[in-house]
Design brief:
248 residues; Glucose Oxidase, domain 1; elongated
């Protein structure tokens, strides 16, 4: 416990430095993903570069095989904008998830005092936000949320609650899940749409969807309960509504 308290004190300055930097990065990632201009890409890259030196302080508390996500950020000129975005988001995910203290490798974040405040940054990106639309309650209506990547999609719903169920996802399915983690990139090229219970416009699912141009609605609250695997559904990622297909 003494070691934990020392770590909390040692890293308080870095944690306070990192919080506004990370918020700024996600703001600039979102702006770039929406507009895709050279100026916004440059601003995004500069914001990520500012976080790198602070992130490096925490490397020693990550398992060795997880450190590469932060180390690669120091060579961002070698990365495409898409790879840089996904690498930064993965680095933040691992930073919240793991800590290595002595011989104890792979501790979860709630056992790592230095990450308590950092974990709040991840949590704030996953907060459920009320939908802006006022969808009428009708027979075909299933759920509604916030549009993260606009578009329309229709297909078979695949309700996936863990990465161990990825084998159930087929080409063109609309993936419905609680929230995504970096592991979901494995099925990103298969799915025609993405719906989550949790999340805001800069959560992992939203970032992933915009990079793969997948119609996506986040923060639905109850999508994994309202939608049944195998059901034909339609998502309107303009108004933020998930509907059952009429012929169902």
């Amino acid at each position: 416990m003494v070691i934990f308290n020392r770590i909390r004190i040692w890293y308080q300055k870095e944690i306070e430095q990192l919080k506004p930097l990370v918020r700024d990065v996600y703001k600039k990632i979102y702006r770039y993903q929406v507009e895709r201009t050279s100026l916004f890409e440059l601003q995004m890259r500069e914001a990520i570069a500012q976080t790198t030196s602070v992130l490096e302080v925490f490397i020693v508390h990550l398992p060795s095989y997880k450190r590469s996500y932060i180390k690669v950020l120091t060579r961002q000129e070698q990365l495409t904008s898409s790879d840089l975005i996904m690498c930064f988001d993965r680095a933040m995910y691992e930073l919240h998830l793991y800590a290595t203290l002595g011989k104890e490798i792979g501790k979860y974040a709630n056992e790592a005092p230095w990450s308590k405040d950092l974990r709040a940054l991840l949590n704030e990106r996953q907060e459920i936000e009320p939908a802006d639309n006022c969808a009428s309650v009708e027979e075909l209506f299933l759920a509604s949320g916030k549009v993260a990547c606009s578009g329309h999609a229709e297909g078979t719903a695949a309700v996936i609650l863990s990465k161990h169920e990825f084998g159930n996802v087929k080409q063109g399915d609309i993936l419905v899940t609680t929230m995504t983690t970096p592991d979901f990139i494995e099925v990103a090229s298969l799915i025609g749409g993405l719906v989550t219970d949790r999340g805001g416009i800069v959560c992992h699912a939203a970032i992933l969807a915009r990079e793969f141009n997948i119609p996506c609605i986040v923060g639905c609250g109850n999508a994994t309960e309202a939608v049944i695997s195998g059901q034909k559904i339609r998502i309107d990622a303009i108004s933020g509504i998930i509907m059952g297909c009429e012929n169902e």
